[in-house]
């Protein structure tokens, strides 16, 4: 069986020669279906929106964009790590991520009409359930913001104290490189070391967050 890179090269060749490439492209993106679902769930968690049923629509949207523009735009070089090779899978997952972000950003804007004004120029009356929901949402946003701040503070410490683990974590969790083989290639390490570095990074981050909370409570 062809590797992802080999199959992508065959697709690019077929497209350049005006041959049918859709079947091969379908096979390639099918390999990335599970990784795409993982990316979509992360975006759903960040926006606190969406359902499992959305994943198929977002995936199909990403495939359409990949077919329309992505095949020509992919250059095989990482945008975030100059000089490092990028895989077509990483490139596609970035498209998936942006498709999901666009979807839930639009939903949020559509569901947040702002302050409505009545016919007499007075602010629209807010019902008790709506007020309670607004308070709950505000509290949830505050808690999420606090957790978000704790994470990035811990992340800065990880980069300073354990740069190797931070580099692996950045690729795997921040840049949507959900394949340890791709992380290993990007960093010039073995797949086993990629697993170990990501695992250690997670442990350090959890420790830093716990320590920060203990200091705040002291």
From TrEMBL:
Q: Where is this region: Disordered?
A: 110-143
One Gene Ontology biological process: DNA-templated transcription initiation
Its Gene Ontology molecular function terms? Answer: DNA binding; sigma factor activity
Q: Which domain of life is it from?
A: Bacteria
Concerning Pfam families, the annotation shows: Sigma70_r2
Q: What keyword terms does UniProt attach to this protein?
A: DNA-binding, Sigma factor, Transcription, Transcription regulation
UniProt cross-references to Gene3D superfamilies, sorted A to Z: 1.10.1740.10
SUPFAM superfamilies the UniProt entry points to: Sigma2 domain of RNA polymerase sigma factors
For the RNA polymerase sigma-70 region domain, which residue ranges apply? 48-108
Q: Which PANTHER family match?
A: RNA POLYMERASE ECF-TYPE SIGMA FACTO (PTHR43133), RNA POLYMERASE SIGMA FACTOR HI_1459-RELATED (PTHR43133:SF8)
Q: What is this protein called?
A: RNA polymerase subunit sigma-70
Species of origin: Archangium gephyra
């Amino acid at each position: 069986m062809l590797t992802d890179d080999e199959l992508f090269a065959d697709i690019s060749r077929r497209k350049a020669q005006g041959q049918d490439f859709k079947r091969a492209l379908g096979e390639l993106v099918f390999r990335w279906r599970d990784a795409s679902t993982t990316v979509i769930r992360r975006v759903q968690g960040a926006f606190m929106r969406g359902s499992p049923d959305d994943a198929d629509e977002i995936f199909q949207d990403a495939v359409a964009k990949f077919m329309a523009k992505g095949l020509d735009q992919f250059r095989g070089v990482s945008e975030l790590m100059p000089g490092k090779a990028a895989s077509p899978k990483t490139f596609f997952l970035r498209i998936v991520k942006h498709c999901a972000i666009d979807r839930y950003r639009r939903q949020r804007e559509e569901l947040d009409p702002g302050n409505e004004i009545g016919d007499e120029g007075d602010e629209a009356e807010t019902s008790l359930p709506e007020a309670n929901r607004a308070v709950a949402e505000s509290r949830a946003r505050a808690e999420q913001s606090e957790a978000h701040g704790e994470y990035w503070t811990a992340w800065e410490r990880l980069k300073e104290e354990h740069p190797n683990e931070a580099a692996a974590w950045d690729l795997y969790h921040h840049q949507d490189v959900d394949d340890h083989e791709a992380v290993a290639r990007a960093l010039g390490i073995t797949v086993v070391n990629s697993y170990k570095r990501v695992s250690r990074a997670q442990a350090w981050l959890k420790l830093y967050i716990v320590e920060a909370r203990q200091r705040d409570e002291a």
